[in-house]
UniProtKB/TrEMBL annotation:
Positions carrying 4-aspartylphosphate: D55
Pfam families: Response_reg (PF00072)
Listed PROSITE patterns: RESPONSE_REGULATORY (PS50110)
Protein's UniProt name: Response regulatory domain-containing protein
Residue span(s) of domain Response regulatory: 6-122
Organism in which the protein naturally occurs: Skermanella aerolata
Classification via SUPFAM superfamilies: CheY-like (SSF52172)
InterPro entries per the UniProt record, alphabetical: Bact_response_regulator (IPR050595), CheY-like_superfamily (IPR011006), Sig_transdc_resp-reg_receiver (IPR001789)
Length: 129
């Protein structure tokens, strides 16, 4: 049996997180869910993920703050950001290095697009793996 890729879903909107979790699990991913960036880091420290899908606007720690912290732990971690509050400044900050695998989606999230992006990103050979 193939090893399942572990995806960490981070969103303070419970229904959005559950919908994404259900879709990913049906596609064979192992999924952990966090309600904010701080909880995501706690989960990461116990069980690092192969990819992260995060909202931007959350309590305690925003998605862009989480992205910066995760990049220090795993520089080439596939990262998908989904938000209804995107700006050019936020996108530029998130895309600080063109080699970093990142996809940015606006909400409401396109689940098929996220699945395609995850599959593509996880199929790439990463230097830190």
């Amino acid at each position: 049996m193939a090893i399942q890729a572990h995806v960490l879903v981070v969103d303070d909107e419970v229904l959005a997180a559950m919908a994404l979790q259900n879709v990913l699990q049906r596609r064979g991913f192992r999924v952990s869910v966090a309600g904010d960036g701080q909880q995501a880091l706690e989960i990461w420290n116990r069980d690092p993920a192969d990819a992260v899908v995060t909202d931007l606007k959350m309590p305690r720690m925003t998605g862009d703050e989480l992205a910066v912290r995760l990049r220090t732990l795993a520089p080439h971690l596939p990262l998908i950001v989904a938000s209804g509050y995107l700006s050019e400044t936020v996108e530029q900050r998130l895309r600080h290095d063109v080699d970093d695998p990142i996809e940015i989606f606006t909400k409401p999230i396109n689940l098929a697009g996220v699945l395609r992006a995850l599959s593509t990103m996880l199929a790439r050979e990463r230097p830190d793996h």
